[in-house]
Design goal:
The complex is a heterodimer of chains A (about 325) and B (about 230).
Chain A: E1 31-34, E2 50-55, H1 64-73, E3 99-106, E4 113-120, H2 129-133, E5 140-143, E6 148-150, H3 160-164, E7 171-172, E8 179-180, H4 186-189, H5 196-200, E9 206-210, H6 211-227, E10 234-236, E11 246-250, H7 270-300, H8 308-318
Parallel strand pairs in A: 2-11
Antiparallel strand pairs in A: 1-5, 2-9, 3-4, 5-6, 7-8, 10-11
Chain B: E1 12-16, E2 19-22, H1 26-50, H2 64-89, H3 97-104, H4 106-111, H5 125-147, H6 159-189, H7 195-198, E3 201-203, H8 204-210, H9 212-222
Helix pairs in contact in B: 1-2, 2-5, 5-6, 8-9
Classes of the chains: A alpha+beta (about 325), B mainly alpha (about 230).
Chain lengths: ~325, ~230
């Protein structure tokens, strides 16, 4: 199988890349949303939505995806101490965009011990909380194929994306002071190659293609799992964030939190919505109204001026000749 | 010498013909202007990150990265600078019975009909409101601000707490900007006020008109005796 250079996105990650010269896509004309840029021009074309499917039931925990990720992105995750956990490194870091998370689960129904391994990383939400929270114009963009990407030269390192993300994914580097996460290998996808992790996965637990193809594949996988006794097998493509362009097949889709606290009902927090919505709009309006109102009041009303009489009274007071208190005046 | 009730050390009648009254010592004025400058820098850099329409303000500070770096440090400066002001001013900003009367006559305050208002000490209820609003909001802002200070406190609070912190920080910032506008406008509208924070003195007429109890107390302390 080879990739057709005339397609707008690769349909698989396993094939070799096209050898014919091709135009790279995912340029400015493919951006559908950009952080802090409400008046972005519409994209010049619509790319086919892509997705990466992670079939947790097929994962053997080999971490080839992590190695491929670090290699492709040229990151050097810090070498850490072994503290008795399988996770390595201990968490997502600015140099580790994807992480195998291991949970040990004793299934109360079957009494079986299950090793649930989930490849964690950016979900590429259709409604990205990071993008909503970001204050820097164009630091986070969403392409029409669904990829959410960080444009590091526009990033200011404020950490608002961390606040906005429902999945706790972005990590801010203490060296470069910009935020990092999985790019869904946008730089590979733009030239007809699937993501590095999917390419490296030896069991094809990670597969890549159009979102429609991946959903169809996922449904077949769910059916297969159900026939093998996993009655609650299902797809994790959370609609609270509009669906995601990285999604899972889970054997226990009824309990996503078993998989190292995968959120049950992820959505952009209402607190973040309130901050970026009504607070921003009404706050700025209130400040503007107060500023304009005080200028108008200043122009249209008389200022409070001290009179010559006031000065005379003050002199009398200081000289010890108390001026008479006018009748009816309240003295408290 | 009678006990001070409406004035504080440093306040005194500076000259008698015409009457000028010293309202703020040099150190207090410096303290005020450091606080004011910090607040203005915070306001501009904070608004730049608050609304995309104002992101251009980051250019004043050398770009987005510099703005993000600078804002929290100036916040710390403002906190300590205001703390010094607070220690000097809190006592005379405690509420007094005449404040209630002043507030109930707020219409006359706005119309400038001060002859219908009670005599006041060094601060009126409006000034006291600004003082306490600033005090409370600055504490809210520094606490919520440290919680979202990515560079030095990335893991101080959990992400759900951080979401509340950033919302509260934004709301408190809007409130403090409104308070700031009120403060500046009142100082301009009430003519003769700004010199209290530039030269440190006000005219006797100003003190008579707006803070008569304060002037009375200072005049009483001079009371023909030897100069202080």
């Amino acid at each position: 199988m080879t990739t057709d250079p005339n397609l707008d996105s690769p349909r698989t990650a396993v094939s070799n890349p096209p050898v014919q010269p091709m135009q790279a896509n995912l340029g400015p004309g493919d951006v559908v949303r950009a952080s802090a840029m409400p008046d972005l021009p519409p994209p010049t074309r619509e790319l086919t939505p892509v997705a990466k499917l992670i079939d947790v039931s097929k994962c053997i925990g080999c971490k080839a995806c992590q190695s491929a990720c670090a290699e492709w992105n040229d990151t050097y995750p810090e070498i850490e101490e072994n503290v008795g956990l399988y996770e390595n490194p201990h968490d997502l870091t600015p140099d580790m965009f994807t992480l195998m998370r291991f949970s040990e689960y004793e299934n109360p129904q079957t009494g079986d011990f299950e090793w649930l391994i989930r490849k964690d990383g950016c979900m590429h939400c259709a409604d990205p909380g990071c993008l909503k929270a970001c204050p820097a114009p164009g630091a986070i963009v969403q392409y029409s194929n669904g990829i959410v990407d960080f444009i590091h030269e526009n990033c200011i390192g404020c950490g608002y994306c961390v606040t906005g993300c429902p999945f706790d994914i972005p990590r801010i580097s203490q060296k470069t002071h910009v935020s990092y996460k999985c790019t869904l290998c946008s730089d590979r996808v733009a030239v007809g190659q699937g993501p590095a992790c999917a390419k490296a996965c030896p069991t094809q637990a990670i597969v890549f293609g159009t979102k429609d193809d991946m959903l169809a594949h996922a449904e077949a996988r769910v059916e297969d799992l159900k026939s093998r006794g996993y009655d609650n097998a299902g797809i994790y493509d959370p609609q609270g964030v509009g669906g995601t362009h990285v999604f899972y097949v889970l054997h226990h889709a009824d309990q996503p939190s078993l998989y190292s606290n995968l959120p049950e009902q992820p959505r952009i927090s209402p607190v973040v919505e309130g901050w970026k919505g009504v607070t921003k709009t009404l706050g700025l309006a209130a400040i503007g109204a107060a500023a304009i109102g005080s200028v108008l009041h200043g122009l249209m009303t008389r200022a409070n001026k001290v009179s010559a009489e006031d000065e005379i009274h003050a002199e009398e007071l200081v000289e010890g000749r108390e001026p008479p208190v006018p009748p009816g005046r309240e003295v408290l | 010498m009678p006990k001070r009730i409406f004035s504080q050390p440093g306040d005194h009648i500076e000259s008698r013909h015409p009457v000028t009254v010293s309202r703020y010592r040099g150190i207090t004025r410096l303290n005020h202007w450091v606080t004011a400058a910090s607040l203005i820098v915070l306001l501009l850099s904070g608004l730049a990150l608050f609304h995309p329409a104002l992101y251009f303000l980051t250019r004043l500070f050398g770009g987005g990265q510099m703005t993000r770096w600078l804002h929290p440090f100036v916040g710390v400066l403002l906190f300590f600078s205001f703390l010094l002001l607070f220690l000097q001013m809190w006592r005379l900003n405690l509420p007094r019975p005449e404040d209630r009367t002043w507030v109930s006559h707020i219409g006359e305050v706005v119309r400038g009909e001060e002859e219908k208002l009670p005599e006041l000490g060094k601060y009126n209820a409006g000034q006291k409101f600004v003082f306490w609003a600033m005090s409370v909001l600055i504490v809210v802002l520094i606490v919520s601000g440290v919680m979202i200070w990515q560079q030095y406190f990335p893991d101080l609070v959990s992400i759900p707490v951080r979401r509340w912190a950033v919302l509260i920080h934004a709301l408190a910032a809007v409130a403090i900007i409104l308070t700031f506008i009120l403060h500046v406008y009142a100082a301009i509208w009430t003519r003769g006020t700004i010199r209290a924070m530039t030269r440190g003195t006000v005219t006797g007429g100003w003190a008579w008109r707006h803070h008569r109890k304060w002037l009375r107390e200072l005049a009483g302390r001079e009371g023909g005796g030897p100069a202080e």
